[in-house]
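Deviation from plan, reported transparently: phenylalanine complex.
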Amino acid sequence: MSEHHHNKAPRGLWSSRIGFIMSAAGSAVGLGNIWKFPYITGMHGGGAFVIFYLFSIVLVGLPIMVAEMVIGRHARKDPVGAFRRLRGGIWTGVGWLGVAAGFVILSYYCVVAGWAVDYLWLSIKGTFSGAHAQEVPEIFGNLLNNDLAQLFWQAVFMGLTVWIVLGGVSNGLERANKVMMPVLFLILIFLAGYGLSLPGGAKALNFLFAPEWGKLDASGMLESLGHSFFTLSLGMGAMLTYGSYAEEETSIPGVAVTVAIMDTTVALLAGVAIFAIAFSYGMEPAAGPGLVFKTLPIVFSQMPGGTLVAILFFVLLVFAALTSSISLLEVVVAYYCDEKKWSRKKATLVMGGIIFLIGVPSALSNHLLADFHIIGDRNFLDSVDLLATNYMLPLGGLLIAIFTGWVLTTRLARAEIEKGEVRFHLYPLWHFLIRYVSPILVAIVFLYKIGLF
Ligand code: PHE
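Because the crystal trials were delayed, the predicted structure below was used instead.
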């Protein structure tokens, strides 16, 4: 009993089960769903990629989400401290990898989220209303050519992230999430419905759901698998950290399933809306990272009341990005608070500043540093995104699965899950997935990609 209190009290807990669900869902639902999922689906040819992605979510993502939350709640620590406490030795490295991924991902995440803040500002100014369909994509090009504007919006977004994390993930944020998430759903349903009523609607459904397996190659599979980690916030300790704030009465598998369903629904709705619009206006599905910013505002420019819908949409996009970025910063901050005994204030301000600086080359990667390629012909932003999503997260996820299935043991994990009044009915299935299916699938795709087959 006393250890129980000793462990929990100073670190804080979610105020309720729904607070935990909304915060975990807030972390999962973000730019990955609305910005990234549609554009990588477009680049990898649609249907087959989407189906592989859905399988990755169920067979790899879900079991690992349960594992991360269990590790976090069992250890009641940041990722580094958790692995050190539960096993130590080289396993502590999994925690390090996660904290490092937090730095890398948040650095460019703030740049892309900055584009969304800029688009919110443009919506408020009424830039889209009455603009011609051909002009709208150019607005995005202008932003990418403006280094200062991107730095400015990146700084604004990082400032917002720091500001929220400084105050702790308060009841206020949990409450705001409970309102904003349903509104986000409603707007996306509306936009998907609107898209389907356009001439390109049927083509969009066909593109997204009719698989052409020939179009899916190894890099598409790795991208899909990597994205299932990214979109569910897995492989770097974000769900581990959030799990460390969870009550014992909360059903971890229940939360994980709810979060995965919400996340997947948002991604598919965004995909339908965006491809329907893209096809209706003769745009390329493989347009790349600018896809969302070039498509949706066309609709906002054409429909009555579009300015208002645009404002609403970009408010929610920024909010979705914020609820994810705070979880990225929280991993880093939890590490400096738990392990280095820094104050939350110091950790948040110093690390927010450093991560902003790491993100500067990403902000300049489309103009000033446009000729600076790191991986293939990818610019800096796309390269660090690739590094984190396709390498760091799958590697982290693989090690977390092996750790939970074989080192910590599933028996102990089950005991942790069932500490409260919870029964883990699907335990045999989870045991099989986390020990065999998830690690083997990740290992195969990974080894294939780095050329070992
Ligand atoms: N899941 C978030 C998104 O889809 C990104 C994220 C990745 C957040 C990893 C936390 C950890 O936008």
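The two ends are 52 Å apart (CA to CA). We consider this an acceptable substitute for the interim report.
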